[in-house]
Specification:
alpha/beta, 7-stranded mixed beta sheet, 19 strands, globular, Aldo/keto reductase, NAD(P)_OxRdtase_dom_sf
Length: about 500
Amino acid sequence: MKPDRKDLAPGLSISRILTGLWQVADQEKDGVTLDPVAGAKALADYSREGFDTFDMADHYGTSELITGELLRSWQGGDRPRAFTKWCPEPGPMTPEIVRAGVQERLDRLGVKRVDLLQFHWWTFEHPAWLDALHEMKRLRQEGLIGEIGVTNFDAAHLDLALAEGIPLVSNQVSFSLIDRRAAGHLAEICKKHGVHLLAYGTLCGGFLSERWIGKPEPEAVKDWSGSKYLRFIQAAGGWNGYQGILKAADEIARKHGVSISNVATRWVLEHAHVAGVIVGARLGENQHRADNLRLFQFELDADDHDRLDQAFAATRMIPGDCGDEYRQPPFLTASGDLSHHLSEMPSAMQAVTDPDNPDRARVFSGSLWEPIAGYCRALRDGDKIVVSGTTATHGVDRTVALDDAGAQTTYILDKIAASVRALGGDPKDILRTRMYLRGEEDIEAAARAHGLRFTTNPPANTTFLVGNLIGDFRVEIEAEAVVSRKRD
């Protein structure tokens, strides 16, 4: 018996259990790298048993090099699939920078084309992520990339990328009995566009297993993955709520004669928009392939789902949307911040102090009309920040997401947030927004996008149906903020 398979895209068949190689970085964190030949041999054992789809990233230690050794030494039959991620630091994404990032993936894997290249971006307030994806689209047409995916994208920005014509086939996000965000708005976007999820964290770093039933909460966990998912458990309502889910999963596991891990993974896998689940492998250590195969020998029934729903009711949802844990507090990472990934989060805009008034500063976004019409993107005077009417202009004069009011609203609110932050404020300091819409058909899409952005700290808002806007914009938004002297 081998794992079930799924076509992620035409010609791209994958194992529904992908083998995740993030633990290579954990195994190498003492500075000693794994032997690539021995590592490739371990991956070959996975491949021969049908676990032939491997997921890695530019920062997962030597995982790309180990997989490259596997691909070079593979003999007979279809070669394994190698999916990797590119996670550049925020900044300008010129064609040269993007090509260099892609070429490094090709060189480390030793291939002429990456099967699936997944893109991660740390802050959507820096708009260069669209430049990167458009260049990746061109490199796909050139043949260097097989398919394009993203990772840790929320529903709004996945929708925006698709509205921009980026041919995305997947989004890799956290999804588990503890973290159920991917069953919400993101599921709707996936269904709308035919995009699939690749789910990681389904076992919460090993916490969704028999070994933790009835055990006290640990003060700390040594490995990075465990440290991260302990934070998820705490954010989801704490140890007691987690133990309730674990108990429910244990009852279901006993009923079907499987493990808690099987139940936890099966629950994720049964969501229609999930193409596969990513289960980590510590190369040369414990193997769980036989247990994982049991995923395809049972299904959860209505009583099972009811029992889990009862357990869910005693917990709370992880804050925000998918991927927010990498972009805003509470940072649910191993360190509780982004120090393992970034030293700083650069802004796309820089504040310029008024030479005649040191209490006043401005930011400019670089749009064509700012110097022509003589205005700035935003101005701070004392604690007050006012943001000019803002449209979905990317760079000097390109309109983002033509004819899609929802996607334009998402882009505009990113630009407004960046303006406020560059002037020393925080997006939650925004007290008022005014939205100007071209037509009645834009009302619901723009309102929903605004609502997704302001699920917490909602500002006062007025929406106007103006019947026309300058240029080809569907939406224009202005905002006002007062910088709070109190921080959470």
